[in-house]
Amino acid sequence: MKRKSFAFNNKKYRVDYQGFLIDPNDWDEDFAEGMAPKVKIEGGLTEEHWRIIKFVRNTFDKMSHCPLVYVACKHNDLGLGDLRRLFPTGYLRGVCKLAGITYREVDFQQNWLEDNLKMHEYTYENKVYRTDEQGFLLNPDDWDENFALSNAYKLHMKDYLTERHWKIISYLRNAFKETGVVPNVYEVCDHNDISIETLEELFPQGYHRGAVKIAGLRVR
Predict the structure, then answer these.
(1) Which fold has domain 118-214?
(2) Residues 109-144 pLDDT 10s
(3) Where do the domains of the chain lie?
(4) Between the CA atoms of 184, 190, 196 and 197, what dihedral angle is there, to the nearest 10 degrees?
(5) Inter-residue contact 102 to 94 (CB < 8 Å)
(6) pLDDT digits (tens, 9 = 90+) for 13-64
(7) CATH architecture of 3-112
(8) Is there a common fold for 3-112 and 118-214?
(9) I want to staple 203 with a disulfide (CB 3.0 to 4.6 A). Which of 39, 90, 120, 210 is the partner?
(10) 89, 184 in Cβ contact below 8 A?
(11) What is the DSSP string of the chain?
């Protein structure tokens, strides 16, 4: 895992190669202010930005995990357009990055960012899939529909996988194949002409922890 440092206001912060803070306990407001231009926020952080950053940060401090994008939007009375205007790079790569955390739980984040991934394997219908500790597929080329169905089952999805789910999954995989980057939540909603509420209905466990995982992808 490549590591580097990020400096702002005479302070140095250890970050990974994508700019995520290695240790969430090192976070302070200077980190968010300094990182803001790197996530395409110009002119400094406004009261609107801080409201959602602090909500995410406070939730993390109390519950040791990053709140789902649906929860953050509802609690702060934000629509998808509002979120996009404030954080153009997305929820995970914008809000959560500025809050000094990822969507991963705190007890996993240190190991994932600080050290190499601890791989494990599980078998489904006589096929072995190598995943990280959170169940994200390590090699997206190993993905198949059985992997998706197995994860939908593990996530206790009420409707299992319907045609609407498969449309999102196919979009994610095709977009990743073309660009090498997992689309952010705005791109998914725009391309599939759905609202964030519909996305929540389809993947209540979250965009990254639900849709992206089931599609055999992960944000790296």
Answers:
(1) Arc Repressor Mutant, subunit A (1.10.10)
(2) 444 444 444 455 666 556 788 998 888 999 999 999
(3) 3-112, 118-214
(4) -150
(5) no
(6) 998 888 899 888 899 999 999 999 999 999 999 999 999 999 999 998 888 7
(7) Orthogonal Bundle (1.10)
(8) yes
(9) 210
(10) yes
(11) --EEEEEETTEEEEEETTS-BS-GGG--HHHHHHHGGGGT--S---HHHHHHHHHHHHHHHHHSSPPPHHHHHHHTT--HHHHHHH-TT-IIIIIIHHTT--SS-HHHHHHHHHS----EEEEETTEEEEE-TTS-BS-GGG--HHHHHHHHHHTT-TT-S-HHHHHHHHHHHHHHHHHSS---HHHHHHHHT--HHHHHHH-TT-IIIIIIHHTT----
Nearest-angstrom CA–CA distance, 166 and 39: 30
pLDDT tier, 190 (very low <50, low <70, confident <90, very high otherwise): very high
What are the tokens at 206? Answer: 């979250």
Instruction: Determine contact, residues 11/19, Cβ cutoff 8 Å.
Output: no
- Rounded to whole angstroms, the Cα distance separating 27 from 57 reads 9
**Total-model pTM:** 0.75
What is the per-residue burial (b if ≥16 Cβ within 10 Å, else e) of 147-157? bbebbbeebeb
Query: What average pLDDT score do residues 148-161 get?
Result: 81
